[in-house]
Amino acid sequence: MTHRIINFNPGPAGLPLQALQRVQAELLDYRGSGLSIMEASHRGKDYDAVHSEAQALFQRLFGMPDDFKVLLLQGGASLQFAMVPMNFLAPDQSADYVNTGEWATKAIKEAKLFGKVRIAGSSEPIHFSALPALASLDLDPDARYCHITTNNTIFGTQYPTYPDTGEVPLVCDMSSDILSRRIDWTHIGLVYAGAQKNLGPSGLTVVALRESFYQKAKTTGVPTMLAYRTHWEKDSLFNTPPTFAVYIFKTVLEWVDSIGGLAAVEQRNRDKAALVYGTIDANPDFFRGTVTDPASRSQMNATFRLPTEDLEKQFVAEALKAGFLGLKGHRSVGGIRVSMYNAVSPEQVQEFVGFMETFARTHG
Ligand SMILES: *Cc1c(COP(=O)(O)O)cnc(C)c1O
After folding, report:
1. What is the pTM of this model?
2. What is the pLDDT of residues 239-290, one digit of tens each?
3. Which helix (H) or strand (E) holds 347?
4. Which atom of ligand 1 is nearest to 80's Cα?
């Protein structure tokens, strides 16, 4: 049996073992075709089925309404920071952004290149340690769209529910919590995510775009490859898509389906987060959560500090020896970050909180 470490990396993240085994079994001869799907034409029938089944399965599993289309793109969430305003914001138009962390800040920087940006809310004054209350957001009813980061990977905050933006389409950077729980699609116009946290390998960017919002995209002045219009009309086959990454994405979705779909994933994620936060809260003299408002705590990335930086270094090193990878907090926050994306199992988190308890007992 191959040795597999317990992977708490913030991204790229671990993939479900069953999905990897499937990929391994099909790697050299994809379903009797005599070649790897990696080597197949993106215009051929084998890849075509992978492409359309991945889109359909993602739409179904995520409970996405029928008026959405799934686009399979490249460039990461970071390119979406620019593509969204490039397609939907003109110099005389305004968009709302809620600033809840480093990724939101980067999205805001790009949007300013294309139009007016209003900051509808910000947790920068409190160093992003909680989310602004939804009721406190200063939303512009005439905004072209309102942009939020649903899960702030670095600071460990996540919106329990989304703002009511009325007629204004909500644009969500969902890179680090996409397909982790059921969501309310009512106000959403566009969702984007790099695949490498919850959906598959790096190299694929998944966008879900609502038709009514898509209709408002600019028709001129956007380079062909950066226009949603191109990918919408050509069903993400204008040029060569990242075929192997799309195939692994589909394999991961089939795993989600096999364990009971989104409701089961949501329950697993709730259970995992309860284990980690429960352990933090049960040892308040040793572990200190960095998120000040419990309602803003992320189910995907739990961030906490230990009494000293030396103990934090020791925690990360001893955890690695015990088989737990990727626990060092982002350099801008320090401390510990436990990234428990979909592929991390409740049993693995149970093992890890055992390590946390032992460490607190022996070093506290
Ligand atoms: C990881 C991450 C990004 C960056 O994604 P890339 O695909 O590397 O561009 C953007 N936003 C959030 C919330 C992230 O977690």
Report:
1. 0.98
2. 999 999 999 999 999 999 999 999 999 999 999 999 999 999 999 999 999 9
3. helix 346-363
4. 9
